[in-house]
Amino acid sequence: MDRKVTIYDIAREAGVSTATVTRVVRKDPHVSEKTRQKVQRVIDAHAYTPSVSAQNLEGGRSRALAVVLPVVSNLYFNRLFDAAYWEAEKNGCSVRLFQTRENQAISPEVVSELLRCRMDGVLFAGSIWSTDRGDLNAALEKLGKYMPVATICPADVELDCICIQSDLINCARLPVRHLHTLGHRRIAFLGGSMHSKDVSRRGTGFLDQLRRLDLPDDPAYHVDAGYDMESGERAVLRMLSGLDRARWPSAIVTFNDLVALGVMKQLKKMGLSLPRDMAIIGCDNQFFCAYTDPALTSVDLHPEEMAQSAVRELLLARESSARSFAMVRDATLVIRESCGAHLGRRGFGQTEESRT
Amino acid sequence: MDRKVTIYDIAREAGVSTATVTRVVRKDPHVSEKTRQKVQRVIDAHAYTPSVSAQNLEGGRSRALAVVLPVVSNLYFNRLFDAAYWEAEKNGCSVRLFQTRENQAISPEVVSELLRCRMDGVLFAGSIWSTDRGDLNAALEKLGKYMPVATICPADVELDCICIQSDLINCARLPVRHLHTLGHRRIAFLGGSMHSKDVSRRGTGFLDQLRRLDLPDDPAYHVDAGYDMESGERAVLRMLSGLDRARWPSAIVTFNDLVALGVMKQLKKMGLSLPRDMAIIGCDNQFFCAYTDPALTSVDLHPEEMAQSAVRELLLARESSARSFAMVRDATLVIRESCGAHLGRRGFGQTEESRT
DNA sequence: TTGTACGCGTTATCAG
DNA sequence: CTGATAACGCGTACAA
Fold first, then answer.
1. pTM
2. Does B1 contact A146 at a Cβ distance shorter than 8 Å?
3. Number of domains in chain B
């Protein structure tokens, strides 16, 4: 491996001072055209590029933002990351990715790594909410002293940083209303946990909406499960196995589209026809939603836009003094075929149901 | 924003020299237990962490690998990246992601950014092969002078770097043989391009295999298309529309699973029943393959293992002198239901076919 | 317009 | 065992 050519090498060979080389590189106009050309020629000849490390050390900043999330290979997170990446790049800033994996909590290792790297800002997304509230606030405060901090978080989390909040309310309301409008009364929720400690609060939000519409909140209609396809398969099987067919829900809202994928597979395996025998609504509006059979109706939380806002605010906060505030991007429902909406309004399970 | 506390601050407050602070941080045993404790206390009190920029400047290396690819939000690439990330992390190395987007060529900007950041190694994956061979070699050579270079590339590409080659041969052979065994004779290929300039050479590899088995290579059986679901939908429609039903293929191999998704959707829309009326084989063995209807048979190129090998070799090359060589990870066929293999062997399209 | 000299935060070398 | 001090590569006052 060759030694990297430095600004000294260029200066010496061009017969000028390092200051002049810098000026040429930074396109400082206070250089005579003659020397500029001379220096530029040497630079080109050696393909000289200033060292970022040295520049950062000098300037005290890294022109880099950190994005901390569990896994990029997750569909939701890679959309989020991708958006953050390009938004930062548009502003001449690079992005460093830190994965925490299943390690739900925000680890001290990550915090110190962020500090070590002198990041210009950090965006947290996903799963850190399960961290003990005290620890979390301590960590954020510690980081906040040195760099602006932003998070993409559930709406009910109050943190001392830039909070881009997921639209929990509509994420639950939209699917429930849609199903209600189509005549469904018995609606189940599968995936994640109904307990309030669940990362996203999606389950609890769902229950709220049921209550608002005076719909039955049958405990049999939600079994705790994971966040992937296998979880969906198992959960729906467990739920339906324990129920008389007359008590079956006519619709299922899932934690996310992956769970929905599993649910649909299991349902078909049981011989049900979708959406006739069961309506399904997923969440995240993933790329494959239009290609399931039937095409999956889903809620879009617009992670891309949230990520873009976060990056923009981070960049802003870097200049001005840091501030803490919250903003929300409305969720939207993307209606496809998995609820039979295209077939017109119908009345599911009305006959067996006791009107309350 | 507070000023970061430096090694000087610690040294002063602890009443020792910076050298001693470094020793404590690096756990150098040549420190008396007494001073060690004294210094450590100050370090903890201020949550001091050495600056990576300064360390890198000093040491002349970054302890970071670069991964260059088109987009992480692509399923194939995020699996690849994720594997590289954790393999590097296991070796105390961080990973920096560079996306080139649709920008197929390896741009001078990326090259100079890699140089600027003084990366300890770089892994290229995907799409740079379409770069003019001369330019590509020039870029790789330039980089190679300063850091080890690895690529995940088609097997027929000869480059002066560490080449982790995709198993082109089996990627084409496995699906064609499988279909042949099941009795299929008219096999089409959809997605990408059949032209040899296509990034992955998947189309040309497919044609080779057809010839080997003496199967008809009807030009109508492959229309150039893209790499996503929409491309699949359009391509299959275009192909079948132009053909008498008697001349229809009985099986379709697609460039990847995304294309397969589109093809399956379009086929169903046309009223065909899968796999009875048409067998499908995708490529990449994506997570959703087991959840399509019918479950999609697919080729796995094992991008994770390729990425891990690449990272390992990069780390090795960093120590010893750089070397250039090639290695291949065999592709495997994951058989599910989209070819009807679970239904036993059958003879598709035998009757209409003219035996040659 | 150009050059000198210092600081940025660490580590390594060499004395003590 | 501990402390000066010289790099590391760059930018930037300040001076010429």
1. 0.90
2. yes
3. 3
